[in-house]
Design brief:
heterodimer; A: alpha/beta; TIM Barrel; five-stranded parallel sheet; four-stranded mixed sheet; 16 helices; B: alpha/beta; Methyltransferase, Methionine Synthase (B12-binding Domains), Chain A, domain 1; Rossmann fold; 2 domains; 5 strands; elongated
């Protein structure tokens, strides 16, 4: 077994843990929903106004109740994935408002983009999950609620991979659970994974709390993930940022366990720094990658699955900046042993834009990172003494049995990177990007929909119609 | 302490020294308005220049602004409101449905640091509240902020509400926030868009020039 890339010493992890407990007990956390405060109060926490002061005993009890790993189920059981336990699962982006493809300028996402993206992610071996709000499209919807319902429905409609949730208050969270229940035909289990974002520092909004309570009561999967920006919404030092983030995550996790012990909760963190001149979020920063590694370690300390990182960049095009920043963040994410990685491909412009080409390029980023993480396996077989003796000095290993046995597994091959000799007349500015364009276009052409049972599709369409008085735009 | 020393302390963001210096000057009979215009503002102007050049950063600018404000707070009771130098009044708020205030606060503080008077309405401000406040304070500029793609549409409604009572004739409207773009600003009839706090100050400077 290979070891994870780590940046905190064991005693430093304990220092961060102790500091967070102090914050939870003495500074407290703002819970802006009476029901949430009542749950804490009923278990002995001190409540003053909207501030909850959480005693360490409650935290320790919650940590005991939360599972170390859980199965995030897909409607096609063969596609279910374990969250936690050592594997790294890639998830698509969430919440992008713009899309971009080679040859066209950035534009607002529309419903057809969402359908195409779900189709692409469905066919990719890189992404283990699908759905959620990959992009939030502009479109002819009667209300925001209808738009989110459509996103949830289309996620199930076009893919049988495990689905990410949507959480923007009680109504949307209920819709997420309703559609997943229908898609699963009543099958039990954790069938959706939604994110709860505390507002750093140390605050949970009424909307997020309502969503948390709804998911927890049904035992559905929750990622509690702050997104603070060091300097602005958390301390400038990365250790201080981890203290605040850790307190936020533990506070959310504790609430979920109070509501329903055993609720699957992922220890999440998407924090980074604010640029010191513009105060804009900086995802391509090396500090983000350090926080990713620290987050993965804290999660292991608590025996919890983790969510952090992604293939992240602030670049506006899939260019040099995008490449180097994305690789740093995704390599850290994978080498750090993060359990589930949202935004594992396609992101440009600090989460705002989804690039079709980068969705494909990042399959290579992830492939490279995963190969790197596998490391060098050393044993009698891999030392290859027999092959060396057979072919000796001046020979080659091309067709040796040992080569044939190992090369496909040992050596990873990119789908895009150019390893050919220089070709006269080839436009190298556009060459690799064009390959990415071809890849996603070809994949869309080859897509076929994993249909649901007819009565389930009928039930979903009826539900939508009854709720919103219109027909969802889908290919039937 | 002399004015030059005060300028230095504002530049360094030394709240205690600026407070001490201002008290000392007042006790020795310095003219209150001169303390502001020669002791405090020149220091802050240097800060503004260094920020633009990328030699000072937001945390340092805010600390300097705090130091300047500490001095102004001591002098203010001694001067008539109308005599306090201001480059213009800016009404700031995060629009309806949106509870994010950090970006808006940052813009407010940067504006104050550069001599603007800011009236901060807070978060989740309805179009009606913007209109009422604009009628009351008669600002030169209204600044609106939104962080969510779902709430940025409230900016359009707010501008409409301002237009209906003819408030946009004399008042410039600027908007900002992560999902907002220059194109969106143009589309909804805003006078300007700023991608970050530093640019918001520059935009306001253009508005009042």
């Amino acid at each position: 077994m290979n070891s994870w890339l780590e940046v905190l010493k064991p005693e430093e992890i304990e220092e961060i843990h102790a500091a967070s407990l102090e914050v939870l007990e003495d500074v407290g956390v703002e819970f802006q929903l009476e029901e949430a405060r009542a749950a804490f109060q009923a278990h002995g926490a001190r409540v003053a106004g909207s501030r909850v002061y959480i005693p360490r005993l409650l935290i320790e009890q919650a940590l005991t109740a939360a599972p170390e790993r859980f199965l995030l189920e897909a409607r096609n059981p063969a596609r279910s994935v374990w969250i936690g336990g050592g594997e790294t699962v890639f998830a698509p982006p969430a919440g992008c408002v713009y899309v971009q493809a080679t040859g066209t300028a950035r534009r607002s996402a529309v419903p057809a983009d969402y359908i195409d993206l779900v189709r692409l992610v469905h066919q990719s071996t890189h992404y283990g999950t699908n759905g959620g709000g990959i992009v939030i499209p502009e479109g002819d919807f009667g209300s925001d609620e209808e738009k989110f319902a459509w996103l949830l429905l289309a996620g199930h409609w076009y893919s049988d991979k495990p689905q990410m949730g949507l959480n923007l208050g009680a109504k949307v969270s209920r819709l997420a659970l309703d559609f997943s229940r229908m898609a699963f035909g009543g099958r039990p289990g954790c069938r959706i994974l939604g994110t709860i974002n505390p507002d750093s520092p140390l605050m949970f909004s009424p909307e997020m709390l309502a969503s948390l309570l709804i998911y927890a009561r049904e035992g559905q999967g929750l990622i509690v993930a702050p997104c603070s920006m060091a300097i602005a919404t958390s301390p400038a030092t990365l250790a201080g940022t981890l203290v605040v983030n850790n307190a936020e995550i533990l506070a959310g996790l504790t609430l979920a366990q109070l509501v329903r012990p055993g609720t699957p909760v992922v220890y999440g963190n998407t924090s980074t720094i604010a640029d010191m001149k513009t105060m804009a979020i900086a995802l391509g920063a090396p500090e983000l990658s350090l926080l990713v590694l620290g987050t993965a370690q804290m999660a292991r300390r608590y025996r919890l699955p983790s969510r952090a990182g992604g293939s992240l960049t602030d670049a506006k095009e899939p260019d040099m900046q995008a490449g180097l920043e994305s690789m740093l963040s995704l390599l850290s994410t994978v080498a750090g042993g993060v359990s589930i990685v949202m935004h594992a491909g396609g992101i440009l412009d600090s989460f705002l834009t989804l690039s079709y080409e980068k969705l494909i390029i990042d399959e290579d980023t992830g492939g490279m990172a995963k190969r790197f993480q596998r490391g060098i396996e050393v044993n009698r077989e891999t030392l290859a003494l027999e092959a060396i003796a057979d072919r000796g000095a001046g020979g080659n290993f091309l067709d040796h049995e040992h080569t044939l046995k190992h090369f496909r597994n040992e050596i990873w091959r990119p789908q895009l990177s150019d390893r050919e000799v220089y070709q006269e007349g080839r436009d190298y500015q556009a060459y690799t990007l064009a390959k990415a364009t071809q890849a996603w276009q070809k994949r869309l052409e080859g897509y076929s929909r994993p249909v649901l049972p007819e009565e389930v599709e009928r039930e979903m369409l009826d539900f939508y119609h009854q709720r919103f008085g219109s027909e969802p735009v889908l290919d039937v | 302490m002399d004015f030059k020393g005060m300028n230095e302390h504002v530049l360094k963001g030394n709240v205690e020294e600026v407070t001490r210096g201002t008290q000392e000057m007042l006790e020795s009979g310095a003219e209150p308005l001169r303390i502001i215009s020669e002791g405090l503002i020149p220091g802050m102007n240097v800060v503004g220049g260094l920020f633009k050049k990328g030699e000072m950063f937001v945390p340092e600018v805010m600390r300097s602004a705090k130091a300047m404000s500490a001095g102004i707070a001591l002098v203010r009771p001694l001067i008539a409101d109308s005599d306090i130098p201001t480059r213009g009044t800016v009404l700031m708020g995060t629009v309806r449905g949106d509870l994010h205030d950090i970006g808006k606060n940052l813009v407010s503080m940067m504006l104050e640091s550069q001599g603007f008077t800011v009236i901060d309405l807070g978060v989740n401000i309805t179009p009606e509240q913007f209109v009422a406040a604009a009628e009351k304070h008669r600002p030169q500029i209204i600044g609106m902020s939104a962080l969510l793609t779902t709430t940025m549409l409230a900016m359009r409604e707010t501008i409409k509400a301002l237009q209906e009572v003819n408030l946009t004739d004399g008042i410039k409207v600027m908007i900002g926030g992560a999902p907002v773009t220059a194109a969106f600003a143009k589309e909804i009839g805003a006078d300007g868009y700023a991608p970050d706090a530093g640019s918001a100050v520059e935009l306001c400077e253009q508005f009042v020039a």
